[in-house]
Amino acid sequence: MDVLLQIVINLVMSAMAYYGTYTVIPQVRHLFIKANLFGVDLCKQNKDIKVAESQGVIAGCVYLVVMFLFIPVPFATGGRPLGYEWLFSLEDFRHEVFAQFICALLSICCMIFLGFADDVLDLRWRTKLLLPTIATLPLLMVYGVTYNNTTIVVPKPFRAALGYSLWLGPLYYIYMGMLAVFCTNAINIVAGINGIEAGQGLVIALSIITYNVVELVASDQWQCHLFSLYFMVPFVSVTAALLYHNWYPSRVFVGDTYCYFAGMTFAVVGILGHFSKTMLLFFIPQVFNFLYSCPQLFKFVDCPRHRLPKYDPKTDTIFVSTFRLKTSETKPLGRLFIKILRILRLVQYKPIGAVNGSATADTYECSNLTIINLILVKLGPMHEKRVTCVLLALQVLCSCLGFFIRYGISKIFY
Ligand code: UD1
Ligand code: MG
Which interval of the chain is the signal sequence (predicted)? Predict the structure, then answer.
């Protein structure tokens, strides 16, 4: 079938995916609440309103339905006379691409299921790291049997020592496995204000689509980018519909299901589209947030269950949330991290009074180490919707920076 026709079918199916997600969410919202799958919007005055959780599962299911219906399209011969091979030509059927397609959907499907399990069971961090690794195995397997390229081009400054290219072998598979773990969790920890999870997913997906379109026209690897487009366009549709309902004031929450679904979809297209390094360039805020969060994630300092900002009902704004740091009880490495962040002016840090009123130099209040809090440290308290808009604008700017690195700076190194 003509590539242009395939793209048109993909676009039409994506429009249907948008409509499906947009209409199904309001219809099933109450079923989730009835099943106790709801949360409380912590940045609102009224804490009695139940907001349906895990609506990412609706987006994910609609996405899977559309992608399953789309499976035959890239492989159909079309235009041939009716007969034994009227739909597929067995002679030039691309088994490798077909296997990639199926395994990609299997990995995404696993991740939606595991994300939903996380929402229902509130899994521990250890499990959250293990699950995406297991869900990537079909993907790594199909990469191994169809492409298996683990050689990377060495950047110019290192070529004298390492040569033009470097074979990474199993290390490359470990990198790809870790990529899926990173993508899923990195989105999940930039969370807690209305619209931010689905918003960042949308910006990253649109950045990937822009990159794919540019490469589709300009590069000889166009088939990989077409493969990525087939996955990304329906993803943008379901995310946009989900974001519509999740935007301030949220009628639904996307849940960990969406974060895992989005992260795995990005990992799938990055790995099978052979542009995983470029894809990471669209994750600059998430990479920064992960590095910035490390002292809390790895328990060098305290990490409260929720690190999202606090709500001030008087001004209807949100402000920095904090954690307590008792210097004498904090690990030396934790103290060092916080000291560096203080020197770089990346945290709000102040001593707090002792129980009986006198000031103590030992206990401090430090802003939680997330990019959302950092925005509030730098710009002061703001309305929740505004913070989401600032963060999404930052995500767009970082994508522009990513394109500049990919098409500008990388030429110096490669
Ligand atoms: C991650 C973050 C946690 C953050 C939480 C918010 C880390 C290590 N974990 O945890 O700091 O507080 O996401 O999602 O960084 N919620 C809102 N408004 C929103 C979205 C969520 O109030 O716009 C609240 C609701 O109460 C909702 C809950 O967050 O029920 C969902 O939290 P969950 O996704 O389970 O938290 P984690 O992913 O474990
Ligand atoms: Mg979450």
Answer: none
In this prediction, residue 44 carries a pLDDT of 93
The region that residue 281 occupies, defined by phi over 0 for left and psi between -120 and 50 for alpha, beta otherwise, is alpha
**Most confident option among 72-81, 158-167, 256-265, 403-412:** 256-265
Burial 36-57 (b: 16+ CB within 10 A, else e): ebbeebebbeeeeebbbbbbbb
Answer whether 5 contacts ligand 1 (Cβ < 6 A). no
pLDDT at 254 over 80: yes
Rg of the chain over Cα atoms, rounded to whole angstroms, equals 23
From the list 12, 119, 107, the residue with the least C-alpha distance to 56 is 119
246 lines ligand 1 (CB under 6 A): no
Beta carbon of 250 within 6 Å of any ligand 1 atom: yes
Mean of the pLDDT values across residues 247-253?
96
Is pLDDT of 81 > 80?
Answer: no
Judged by average pLDDT, the poorest of 55-64, 118-127, 343-352 is: 118-127
CA distance 399 to 408: 13
Is residue 254 lining ligand 1, measured as CB closer than 6 Å?
Answer: no
| Residue 100 CA from chain centroid, whole number | 21
Atom of ligand 1 nearest to the CA of 44: 22
The residue to mutate among 182, 253, 254, having the most atoms of ligand 1 within 8 angstroms of its beta carbon, is 253
pTM > 0.90: yes
Convert the pLDDT of each residue in 195-235 to its tens digit. 999 999 999 999 999 999 999 988 888 899 999 999 999 99
Beta strands in 253-321 (DSSP E): 310-312, 317-319
- Taking the alpha carbons at both ends of the chain, their separation in whole angstroms is 36
Question: Distance between CA atoms of 44 and 385, rounded to whole angstroms?
Answer: 12
Give CA–CA dist 327/324, Å, rounded: 10
Q: Which amino acid is at 306?
A: H
pLDDT of residue 130: 85
Query: What ranges make up the beta strands (E) of 192-321?
Result: 310-312, 317-319
Burial of residue 408 (CB within 10 Å: 0-12, 13-18, 19+) is: exposed
CA 204/CA 201 separation, integer angstroms = 5
Kindly state the tokens that stand for 125: 């961090």
Does ligand 1 come within 6 angstroms of the Cβ of 309?
A: no
Cα pseudo-dihedral 222, 228, 230, 236, rounded to 10: -130
Residue nearest to atom 8 of ligand 1 (CA): 189
